Amino acid sequence: MGLDELPVRLVEMLRERGVRDSDILNALEDGSIHFLAVDQLLGPPSSRISANQIAKTTGVEVLVLRRLWRALGFRDFTNDEMVFTELDLQAAHSLKILLGEGELPREIALQLARVMGSSMARFAEAEIVSSSAFGALGDEFGEVDPISLADRFTRYSANVVPAVPQLLVYTWLRHLHAASRRAMLAFDNGAQNVAVVELAIGFVDLVGFTVISQQLSNEELAKVVGRFEQVSFDSVTNAGGRVVKMIGDEVMFVAEDPMAACEIGLRLAAEYRRDSLLSEVRAGIAFGEMLSQDGDYYGPIVNTASRIVNIAAPGTVLITREVADHVRDEGDFVLRALQPRYLKDIGSVELYVIRDSGPTSKVALSSL
After folding, report:
1. Selecting from 3.30.70.1230, 2.40.50.90, 3.40.50.720, 3.40.50.150, what CATH number does the domain 195-367 have?
2. I want to staple 280 with a disulfide (CB 3.0 to 4.6 A). Which of 248, 266, 315, 350 is the partner?
3. Does the predicted TM-score (pTM) go above 0.85?
């Protein structure tokens, strides 16, 4: 096969990036044309420099560069190994500016790098799996030849990739603004440490997901997981909460107050109950102080919420006494007190089942 038989778009892209026709033909002959396309579209420039050279140019110690490199999720290197490029040099300059201004202590900068690297790795993986270049291939993926795959990826990269950086910056700035306002509000309310927050936290678990997943094809499983995420994110954000993370068949969310958290839990239970694609869910909600770090939450309150979801019956929402104390005189909820439950490593916990009583009912509290 000659160059004239390849997609014009693919050949033009490779030539624009300085790839010689002989190299294209070699890649075509050994079946690596799709790797050549990916490396030219997304790979770093061909000129390489070492960590020692970056350190000499920027003044950032090699040890710091190595720790940053690991934190971002990249493999280790030797000081003289020629694995870095101009992009890495620019990143090192940015790091020096942050550290030099004194706004970010070294350990904090590395902590943020770990969050950034992990988040971007997940985003990149999700983008590729769901992209038209790969995800649309479905069950026929194994039958696609390298040339078709290279052409699809070339088209995808030309149409989609340039728009992503702007969207990432936009999303980051919106979330940064919201997080900054939450921090300002916390200080106005007397908080001494912005990392210690008082929030309601909830876990919502798909009932019987392990059994169901073993009965589904990969395509069917993808639809179930996608629907679970869609309903979770829509319901949580529309009620004023924030999804912290998806943990397999479980969603972890936080809300500023217990009232909103209960509304989220009940809304999710109702949504999943009506959804023909999903099974019922169960939820556990707790309220109190917790540690906020790296975009996640830690502490006894978080542990309690994660434990009580496992003892909730399908379709129900369990809440702790602290949550009940905040909502029993507000909203349209019915609370039913359960016998105190002993949770391993936590102790005895007072629990309540909460349900929506309708738009005109008042909160009622009854005991078993």
Report:
1. 3.30.70.1230
2. 315
3. no
